[in-house]
Specification:
Shape: elongated
Number of strands: 6
Oligomer: single chain
Structural class: alpha/beta
Radius of gyration: 24 Å
Strand content: 5-15%
Number of helices: 12
Distance between the termini: 81 Å
Strand order of the largest sheet: 1-6-5-2-3-4
Length: 312
Amino acid sequence: MNDNSFALPSNWYSAALRIALSVFFFFSFATKIYYLEPVEISLVETRLFSWPIASLLSRIVVGLELLISVTFLFNIVRKFTFYTSVCMMVIFSIFLLFKLLMHGNTGDCGCFGDFIELSPAFSLAKNIPIIALILAWHFYSKEEWEIFPGIITGILLISCLGLPFYMNSPYLEERENTALHQTDYPLDVTTLGPMRFSDSTLPNLQQGEYILAFLSLRCDHCIQAARKLRLFQEEYALPPIYAVYIGSQELVDAFQKESHSKFPHHVYTSKKLLQVTGPEFPLIMYVQNGIVKAKWSKPDQANMAKWFKPQK
């Protein structure tokens, strides 16, 4: 006679898997909700999506992650949870394969915002056990709970999808920053001094038009700004872009590799540069004949469309 007194019931396995998956999807939502820029840029880099569509899709994705987390936690709408979570993980995996083919195993996949950096290959490998856990949960889970009336469940699910648009609205203007709105003043070329860039150019900063991108080599937001500028360079007739890095020369290659950018650059190791930029990085300046005409901490499509014509 077999003694099964120590055997755990299958619903215990189901509960453990359900809670683990709920935590995973909520963590993925929480680490991205306030920092969607890398996700948006990655979508645009595929050349399949415009900036407005990428902005919309990134918020739908994190909304679905929150929704799936909630449905796993409360064990509701079981079929929807299973098919949606599996489809999401498969789509994410296809996207990561596409990213690997385009750029190789470089940069951060953006799966967990700037909280955890994962390479595309590592993130792709991570998706395999997650899909396996979802399939195991589906095998062990035989019924769903009906703890909410249907209308409450509907409101809950819609609220999850809508929350990212409230918490990180794509339509809110950048927070007021007096320094960024002070324009039409001479660039402080005395403090900057003569700058010889990596392509051996020694531009006259008081003549012509150009873009100066002040970027810290240890700043993830600066990496995203460089990625955006590279994409905008393909979409708009931008003047020459010069990158002014603050940091160590040894970090330049890694920065350019992760941002997929290679602008002519000059490296500052002195904090004297802060007299020109202030404490804000990244800082992008559009300069005409030595006069700063516009400044941005987060270059976006609206900025580019205002100042520059689309590429023909």
